[in-house]
TrEMBL record:
The keyword Plastid does not apply. Keywords: Glycosidase, Hydrolase. Coiled coil: none annotated. This is Aryl-phospho-beta-D-glucosidase. GO terms for cellular component: cytosol. Transmembrane segments: none annotated. InterPro entries: GH, GH_1_N_CS, Glyco_hydro_1, Glyco_hydro_1_AS. GO terms for biological process: carbohydrate catabolic process. The active site is at E374 (nucleophile). Belongs to the glycosyl hydrolase 1 family. GO terms for molecular function: beta-glucosidase activity. Pfam families: Glyco_hydro_1.
């Protein structure tokens, strides 16, 4: 007995903009992902003013899943997937975002995609907004700094809940909504919320305002889903990077606690339907005057999520400093290197035990079912002539994480619904826009410059994961 429950959702995860391509097909509009160029480790992706001639936009073609999804789902089925997490590109359904009527061609695409999954016994798990909101909502409305976005998102949500209610049971609202806690860089605010800042603008309150509107939109969507069909399950989606104190000095411990407050209060609102007091006190201390109405607070209270979806790739570490007596957390300055763990080629800390810790942390705080909807190892793969990749390093990473996940379930009693490793087929990296940062069990022949046949081939980890699923996590 492995301890994973009956019907445990083994599968894989992707997001529309990172694999579909077909950026203008079927009436699709331009999304925020379509105006981001390719970067690299240490080289941020450029966010351009619209789509410019001569720039490399890797998401436009991605891995052409839009035309090849049947072949890809066939491969997922061969691995024994029980579920497949992807997102609905908002711009296929509402190309500009503010239309009153949806685009039928976009709706039909997801009908066909979900039917194909179901034909293979694979249950679709769907994120509503995964770093791909309509770009028009950025240029015309300023993104999520504008309250009107709540209505646009709710309209989109209701259309897809209604249309797919008999094909999709598990939903999530905003992917990694808490990434934007890191408001000093440009990537997270733009991909989470379509935020572009003016030079010199005080970014922090804007981040809290946009997050608030998203949390209200999420709560209203949860409520709408229940009204449309009580069988639907709607979760949140949190990027979990637990923040450890560098030492056991009490100040470091306080710093780590406060850092966790600032990165994970989003979960409190999603799950408990209200703001934690520490954050309200912080708003007061900083003099942030946010647009939070009584109606909003009522909506939050009535739209608590059914489960917690989260990604886990790495842990962080922090320490106190003399110039920060209130232990305020600024993700661009407060993190330190953890000397006890290794790092990936992209500087991500490899820490399987942190996954067990995270599962316990969520369970202790919220007692809601948990779903690990992303986990994985971005690495440089070298394909042989026949397309095979000997990715033992990926197997090592994933098996160590599944082993810790099992301890959390069997020894610690955490309620875990499923596990969908990230980028089950190679796709465009969100953070860097590269192809060479690969996560897949399936190799895709395409490089950073966009060259390659796009052909698919099985890596060593393909067979490994098939065995994991077949043995329900016994054979690691
Ligand atoms: P890439 C930062 C930290 C943790 C997860 O990321 C993150 C990010 C943003 O880069 O994003 C999630 O592709 C996200 C996926 C993304 C995946 O992790 O930068 O939900 O869209 O591809 C991996 O290596």
């Amino acid at each position: 007995m492995s301890g994973f429950k009956e019907g445990f959702l083994w599968g894989g995860a992707v997001a529309a903009h990172q694999l579909e391509g077909g950026w203008k097909e079927g009436g699709k509009g331009i999304s925020v992902a379509d105006v981001m160029t390719a970067g690299a480790h240490g080289v941020p992706r450029e966010i351009t003013d619209g789509v410019l001639q001569g720039k490399n936009y890797p998401n436009h073609e991605a891995i052409d899943f839009y035309h090849r999804y049947k072949e890809d789902i066939q491969l997922f089925a061969e691995m024994g997937f029980k579920c497949f997490r992807t997102s609905i590109a908002w711009t296929r359904i509402f190309p500009l975002g503010d239309e009153l009527e949806p685009n039928e061609a976009g709706l039909q695409f997801y009908d066909d995609l979900f039917d194909e999954c179901l034909k293979h016994g694979i249950e679709p798990v769907i994120t509503l907004s995964h770093f791909e909101m309509p770009y028009h909502l950025v240029t015309e409305y300023g993104g999520w700094r504008n309250r009107k976005l709540i209505d646009f998102f709710l309209r989109f949500s209701k259309v897809v809940f209604t249309r797919y209610q008999h094909k999709v049971k598990y939903w999530m609202t905003f992917n990694e909504i808490n990434n934007q806690a890191n408001y000093h860089e440009d990537f997270a605010p733009f991909t989470n919320s379509g935020l572009k800042y003016q030079p010199g603008e005080d970014r922090e309150p804007v981040m809290y305002q946009a997050s608030h509107y998203e949390l209200v939109a999420s709560a209203l969507a949860v409520r709408a889903a229940r009204e449309i069909n009580p069988a639907l399950q709607v979760g949140c989606m949190i990027a979990m990077c637990p923040i450890y104190p560098l030492t056991c000095a009490p100040g470091d411990m306080m710093m780590a606690m406060n850092a966790m407050h600032r990165r994970y209060w989003f979960t409190d609102v999603h799950v408990r339907g209200k703001y934690p007091q520490h954050l309200l006190n912080y708003f007061e201390r900083r003099g942030f005057e946010l647009d939070i109405t009584d109606e909003d607070l009522a909506a939050l209270a009535e739209g608590c999520v059914d489960y917690i979806g989260f990604s886990y790739y790495m842990s962080f570490a922090t320490k106190a400093s003399a110039d920060n007596p209130q232990f305020d957390y600024d993700e661009s300055k407060s993190l330190v290197s953890n000397p006890y763990v290794q790092k990936s080629d992209w500087g991500w800390q490899i820490d399987p035990v942190g996954l067990r810790y995270s599962l316990n942390w969520f369970w202790d705080h919220y007692q809601l079912p948990l779903f690990i909807v992303e986990n994985g190892f971005g690495a440089i793969d070298v394909a042989q002539d026949d397309g095979f990749v000997d990715d033992q390093y990926r197997i090592d990473y994933l098996s160590a994480h599944v082993a810790e996940m099992k301890k959390a379930v069997v020894e610690d009693g955490v309620d875990l619904m499923g596990y969908t490793p990230w980028g089950c087929i190679d796709l465009v990296s969100a953070g860097t826009g590269e192809m060479k940062k690969r996560y897949g069990f399936i190799y895709v022949d395409k490089d950073n410059e966009g060259r390659g046949s796009l052909s698919r081939s099985r890596k060593k980890s393909f067979k490994w994961y098939k065995d994991v699923i077949e043995s329900n996590g016994e054979k690691l």
